[in-house]
User: Which sequence fits this backbone?
């Protein structure tokens, strides 16, 4: 079955001064899949995410999103693309002067013909779908724990029912129970909403539990892509170390135990 | 989710753009088109036809794109119809729509019981009382901060090896040296203004020469040090609050405590001490520049030569005025430093409180400086100095 490519990166180049982070990077993301990007510190995982999300123009290469050239398009076209994507930042990046509900309502305000009452109800729905209690809607971000802020950030990212969601370190800083609950949430949302999820993570458990496909960033490009099983057979020293280290073995065992 | 062969971008946009229609279909109703957050109000209007028709069925086979907002609308409709005693069934659901509707159904927000807001006379009184108590507590906290500073200073006098000389020099540079240009310019302009305004009035009485006394007394006694303190309050109280506040926000202060570094010794003492040292110097610069500006204006406007100005200044102006001015400098420095550091420690966990505390610190510092100046005036008047 031919699969629908929603994000296509070709020959992407990113550099900071003389430091080249990405060079000739290619990657395809298919509709409805959960892709996890892994790589050592400083390999530019977050830079890649920021590039695709349109927060940072790359120094070279092409980015196609929904079949449209995302780098050479008008502002209106770019805005249309942005409305079909949602980003969850590492610490939620919620607006600190607004309550959680108001935060979730912010993207909805750009839509015409959506009255305030309905907007509020939909915001409550997103808050509830992200696994937050109803009362969290009235709280300010500073009153929430780190895990709740992440959920609220996810609720805001999902406000307009985007087709692609970018998650930057979704489980970093969460306790294991909270992290696995978040993994399940991502999995469940991607299945029922048909979401394409692009996530950057260090968490091997998250990779096991949520990702259909893993992309390994190394040597300034996407060195390998494949399923978790594929990753275990790769001989590249860094990849081998990453997926066969003590933490990786623990993650595999947990996964096998829980089924 | 679409599994068409690609490219289904255009196919998808058709699915999204198709207008939503609810039509009669045999015994029941049928919905077609897309139902999502962008056409929610049209969809709500169409679906309203189903209300008040009793038990009915909605055929969903022709429904295109459905999102969570659309699923929410369907749930609300079903709930409203159920509340009116009838029943609505969805038939011929596609599998992905079914999954979405189930998911949304499981997550329907359950509002907690709302507490009615009450506003009675006692609430108003309570609010007033809390404000008064808060203001009292604020003053107590300021005194506590002053006491903390003095205690740590006394401690450091006994153990000078723990004193952070580098920090003190750094803050003297920030608070004092960097403020010299603006304070000098301010002093000069005040002198110019006083001489100019004074000469216009005094000329009417032929008492031009008294402009020297006017300038000397008002600048040396009041304006030089007061306006310097106000400028320093604006510059320095805010920077103290911002610096200490952002450390508080990022838990650096807590980190210092766990590393057995006393924040008062490390942060407050060098800052307030730097103010104590530099504010009198800045005041002196403002005084000199004010006299210089006044003398220049008196020469241009009234023809009082610099030599005559100098003679008159030395003969007629008691050195008491200068002392009265300088006595206030350390008090103003303490006020500014204590308020700035205290506000920094009040910053909470978010950037907003940092901004609020910074501006509050400036307002409070300027206000307290002026209050202290007024108290000094009353005191000196009673003492006859």
Assistant:
């Amino acid at each position: 079955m031919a699969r629908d490519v929603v994000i296509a990166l070709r020959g992407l180049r990113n550099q900071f001064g003389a430091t080249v982070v990405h060079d000739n990077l290619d990657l395809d993301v298919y509709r409805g899949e959960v892709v996890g990007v892994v790589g050592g510190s400083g390999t530019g995982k977050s830079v890649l995410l920021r590039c695709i999300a349109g927060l940072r123009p790359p120094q070279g290469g092409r980015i196609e999103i929904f079949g449209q050239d995302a780098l050479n398009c008008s502002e209106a076209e770019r805005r249309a693309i942005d409305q079909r994507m949602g980003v969850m930042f590492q610490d939620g990046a919620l607006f600190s002067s607004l309550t959680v509900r108001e935060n979730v309502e912010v993207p909805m305000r750009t839509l015409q013909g959506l009255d305030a009452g309905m907007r509020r109800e939909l915001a409550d729905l997103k808050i509830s779908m992200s696994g937050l209690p109803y009362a969290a809607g009235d709280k300010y971000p500073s009153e929430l724990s780190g895990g709740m802020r992440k959920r609220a950030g996810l609720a805001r990212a999902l406000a307009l029912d985007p087709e692609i969601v970018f998650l930057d370190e979704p489980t970093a800083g969460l306790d294991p129970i909270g992290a696995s609950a978040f993994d399940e949430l991502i999995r469940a949302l991607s299945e029922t909403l048909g979401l394409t999820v692009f996530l950057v993570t260090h968490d091997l458990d998250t990779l096991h539990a949520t990702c259909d496909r893993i992309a390994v960033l190394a040597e300034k490009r996407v060195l390998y892509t494949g399923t978790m099983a594929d990753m275990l057979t790769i001989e590249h020293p860094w990849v081998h170390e990453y997926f066969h280290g003590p933490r990786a073995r623990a993650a595999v065992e947990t996964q096998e135990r829980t089924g | 989710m679409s599994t068409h062969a690609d490219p289904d971008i255009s196919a998808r946009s058709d699915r999204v753009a198709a207008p939503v229609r609810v039509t009669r279909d045999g015994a029941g109703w049928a919905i077609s088109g897309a139902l999502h957050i962008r056409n929610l109000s049209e969809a709500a209007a169409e679906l309203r036809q189903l209300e008040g028709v009793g038990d009915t069925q909605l055929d969903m086979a022709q429904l295109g794109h459905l999102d969570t907002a659309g699923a929410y609308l369907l749930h609300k409709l079903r709930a409203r119809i159920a509340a009116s005693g009838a029943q609505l069934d969805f038939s011929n659901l596609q599998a992905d729509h079914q999954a979405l509707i189930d998911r949304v159904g499981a997550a329907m927000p359950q509002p907690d019981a709302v507490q009615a807001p009450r506003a009675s006379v006692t609430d108003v009184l309570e609010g007033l009382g809390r404000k008064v108590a808060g203001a009292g507590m604020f003053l107590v906290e300021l005194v506590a901060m002053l006491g903390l500073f003095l205690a740590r200073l006394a401690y450091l006098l006994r153990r000078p090896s723990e004193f952070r000389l580098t920090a003190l020099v750094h803050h003297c540079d920030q608070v004092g040296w960097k403020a010299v240009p603006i304070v000098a310019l301010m002093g000069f302009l005040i002198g110019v203004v006083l001489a100019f305004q004074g000469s216009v009035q005094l000329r009417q009485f032929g008492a031009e020469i008294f402009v020297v006394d006017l300038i000397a007394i008002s600048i040396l006694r009041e304006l030089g040090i007061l306006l310097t303190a106000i400028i320093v309050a604006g510059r320095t109280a805010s920077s103290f609050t911002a610096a200490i506040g952002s450390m508080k926000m990022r838990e650096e202060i807590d980190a210092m405590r766990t590393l057995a570094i006393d924040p008062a010794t490390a942060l407050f003492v060098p800052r307030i001490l730097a103010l104590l040292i530099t504010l009198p110097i800045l005041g002196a610069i403002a005084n000199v520049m004010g006299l210089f500006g006044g003398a220049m204006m008196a020469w241009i406007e009234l023809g009082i030569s610099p030599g005559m100005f100098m003679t008159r200044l030395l003969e007629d102006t008691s050195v008491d005025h200068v002392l009265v001015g300088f006595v206030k400098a350390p008090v103003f420095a303490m006020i500014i430093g204590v308020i700035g550091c205290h506000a920094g420690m009040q910053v909470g966990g978010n950037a907003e409180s940092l901004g609020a505390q910074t501006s509050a610190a400036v307002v409070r510092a300027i206000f307290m400086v002026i209050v202290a100046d007024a108290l000094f005036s009353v005191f000196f008047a009673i003492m006859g100095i």
Observations:
- Chain A has a mean pLDDT of 85.
- The two ends of chain A are 28 Å apart (CA to CA).
- Residues 176-193 of chain A form the longest helix (18 residues).
